[in-house]
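Dear support,

Our group has been running a series of protein-ligand predictions, and this particular one with magnesium ion is the one our PI (initials K.S.) wants archived with full inputs and outputs. We had some confusion internally about which version of the output was final, so please treat the block below as the authoritative record. The input we submitted was:
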Amino acid sequence: NRSNQPILTTTNVIKDFSGLRALNGISIKLYRGEILGLIGPNGSGKSTLVNLISGIYPITSGKISFEDHDITNKQSHYIANRGIIRTFQDPHNVANMTVRENLLLGNHRLYQSGILSCTINFKRSLVEEQEMLVKVEQIMDLSELAHYADDQVGNLPYGIQRIVEVARAILAEPKILLLDEPAAGLSETELKLLIQLIRYVKSRGIPIVLIDHHMEFVASLVDRVFVLDSGEEIYSGDMKGMKQNKQVIEAYLGV
Ligand code: ADP
Ligand code: MG
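Confirmed final output from the archive:
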């Protein structure tokens, strides 16, 4: 329901990397329950925006708000702990741990921010431990990872590693999920599993920012899109309007 206040807002966000303006005054709103597609050619600033929202890089100017809190330039562990969970273009699983172990770690939001190593002993009650195991099995069923439960993640096909990355993020019980090119390098079968996972997140009312180049995949999932080109907003609206938008067509055709 879009009538609500947005859960996440960026206002006039600018990001400079030593002389290069990667984002130039980006304002986005993410509403509860929606999937917002974030698209644009390579180097247009999509990952940078996710890196700013998740506190990986400091912003040059502008503001980021989450549930009425100003989270501008808060540290990544603070942001993850509040429930803004992101995945990376290159999966951040622990290669020498099994799928199940990686998913169990996922439940710890702080782990998602990458600041805790897997050697840290998370304190949980026995009941919490049991609930966690049930959730992990559910997610493994949904994404058909059960078959790989006891395999070391590093030995699995790349597409499966990417699905583990997304499944792990879901187990952190995000309030917002930021997915950076989750479909890249996936086979058709793996893509179907990923779509199942994303639909599951949406069915639970969790809003998603979905970055991807795969237009059919994006179109099948998103409610709206926001298009970047060279750090500038060139379109915001529905997919239909996007396909007819002159600036978008030019950005993609390189005219
Ligand atoms: P996208 O994800 O849309 O492909 P990025 O956000 O990764 O684009 O990059 C946007 C621009 O910012 C590119 O020109 C890229 O080279 C630059 N950039 C991204 N991260 C860094 C960094 N850590 N240091 C310097 N430049 C960067
Ligand atoms: Mg990127």
